[in-house]
Structures are given as structure tokens and as C-alpha cells.
Amino acid sequence: MTTQNSVTVAVPRETRPGELRVALVPADAGRLVKAGLTVKVQAGAGTAAHYTDAAYEKAGATVVADAASLLGSADAVLKVQPPTVEEAGQIKQGAVVICFLQPVADAAVVQALTARNITAMSMNLVPRTTRAQVMDALSSQATVSGYRAALLGAQTLPKFLPMLTTAAGTIPPATVFVIGAGVAGLQAIATSRRLGANVRAFDIRDAAREEVLSLGATFVAADLVSKDAQDAGGYAKEQSEDAKKATAAALARHVAESDCLILSASVPGKKAPTLVTAEMVAAMKHGAVIVDLAAEQGGNCAITKPGETYVTDNFVTVCGPVNVASSMPTHASVLYSKNTLSVLQYVVKDGALALNPEDEIVKAMSVKGGAQ
């Protein structure tokens, strides 16, 4: 990048209800300014994540009150959630928008952006390559979600997590069972271990077993693991119906023995696999807790209600949290900001946007006309 102010970057306030993160934190805004870019931030954009307008101004950014003028003057728009159709109509033609974007679910937004020749780069579609690792927002936000899931389970559970030896006797450690050892699951394992729980874990991917063991957890049902269970990007492949049933049957005993069950199994672009049936929940201990991080994708538990927490007839608390990373907006924004900064640095060359449609990262992330 040069010292020319040829690229204007806009950071609007998030408008989706419940979204507390901001796409660019003051420290990274300062890095862009020092690199010669103009950074404009809508007033209050970082407030919910505890970043003040004054902090942005100190970093060299300009604070703008009006969203329409902000979006209309920007070459690049950084957001967490997708813009609304109305916001898409306010963005300058030919600009680039970098945000989380689901090509199918957000088809109307994608079409509105395409109609204005706006390049939409989805943070959901960052390729799993070494060069793109620093842009991987799904992983950075999953780190937050896994941490929060362990804390939610600990807070909801009517027991201590660690073993305690007191004058009144010894309290045994609680058993936490984590299904799905991706980034979120591994962070849930690590956090539960730090809190003193006895942790078990399972994943169908062979590569996950070593990571689980390295965190000091017990890997269960190892005979179900397959070297062919993950795709080229390292994500789990969808199992056949017979394989899903075999997995559920093998995990039933461990589910029944768990005090806290954390579920984080997912398949990109697919409904989350149902690994815990209603019958398995009915066999769990009174007072047990389920935290289903896959709630937004349909849930790993058959009776999860997205966005709700409720207690079953046998006194199992089922939590179906959504947008979990947003519940820890300060550090979630720090991580996400590093991802968006890296994408922007990648597509700005010599002081100008340089979007090569054949570049492997640009091609993978670009969304047009409702399809990737």
C-alpha cells in the first residue's frame, strides 16, 4: 500500500438486532490510516463492543453521523452482518463489501449488491488455506463461541465443575462431554479443563483425536473415527443416515453419564447433524445441562429450540444460544477486525482496490447473483 488516500473504508453501525460486534476496532483502523487509506466510522459503531468514537478519532479515523453518506462515499464497506437491502442501495456502485454473508439465506441482499456492481466478499467463504488462515473469521469467532459455551454450561449447571476437598467432604469433578472437536469444541474442551472438569470428547474426524488428547481430555468411541470423514478444507463431511445412527448409539452412554453436554458438530452448508435424540436426553441425569452451539444450523440435539433455554420433564436444561460470539463483543471484535483487516490488505494494492476474480481467495469469497 502507498501513502495515497485513494481507498475510503467505511465501518457502519450494525443494525441487526442483538449484534454487538464491530467490524474494525480502533487499533486496526489506525493501521489502515498509517498505510494511506481513509477510514470513516459511523458514530456509535463500536459502542456496544466498548470502543468509543473518541478512540477511532484518536486512531485517525473520521466519525460520520449519517449512514447513507458514509456508505455512499466508501470504496470498501466492512461489516459483521450483511447489509439490509436498503443499505445495499446506499452503497456506492463498484464498491466492495466484506461481511458474513450466506449466498442462499441472504439472496435478496446479494441480488441488490450485484445490481449495483458491488463485489460482496463473504467471511463465511474464506478458503481453508495457509495463506488465508489470518482471514478465517469462522475459526476466530468459533474460538469465542467455544469459550462462552463452557462458561454457559458451568453457570447453568447446579454443581461445581472442579473437584473440591473441604472440611465438609470431597466434591467429585463434574463430567463435561463435548461432541464436535472443531475450533469451538476444542476451545470448549480447553476452557472446561481449566475450570477443573473431567472432560470427554468425540469427533468423527481422525485428525481431531490427537488435538483432543493434547488438551488432556478423554477421546471416546474411537472406533467410529474415520480418515475419510473430513473434506479437503478439514471440515467434517456429512455422514450417511446409518452412520449417524451408529454414532448416536455409541455416544448414548457417555451422554447419559454427562453433567454438561456441549454440542458443536457441524457440516458447512448443511443442516447440523442430529446426534442426540429426545430419548437420549430423557436418559440424562436430573440437573444436567445441554449447550447446543449448532442451534442456528438446526441443532445437534433433536429438542433444541434456537434462541431459547428451557427445562425438560426430567429436569435437563437445554440451551440453544444463537450468535454466541456477539455475547463477548470486545474480544470477538478484536479477532474479527484482524480478519477483515487482512482481507482488505490483501485486495488493496498500490493504494487502490485490486480484485482479481481469478485469485484463489477472491474467487472463493466472492458472492454474486445469489450464488457463490
Could you tell me the strand content as a percent range? 15-25%
Report how far the terminal alpha carbons are from each other: 28 Å
Binned, the helix content reads 25-40%
Instruction: Please state how the strands of the largest beta sheet are arranged side by side.
Output: 3-2-1-4-5-6-18
What is the oligomer described by this structure? Answer: single chain
Main sheet makeup: 7 strands, mixed
Shape: elongated
Give a brief rundown of this model.
It is built from twelve helices and 18 strands. The N terminus is likely disordered. It is 33% helix and 16% strand.
Walk me through this protein's architecture:
The structure is a single chain. It is elongated and about 65 Å long. About 45% of the residues are buried. Helix content is about 35%, strand content about 15%. With about 375 residues, the protein is α/β, with parallel strands linked by helices. The model is unreliable at about 1-5 (pLDDT under 50). The protein has a 7-stranded mixed sheet with strand order 3-2-1-4-5-6-18, with helices on both faces. α6 (about 135-155) packs parallel to α7 and α6 (about 135-155) packs antiparallel against α11.
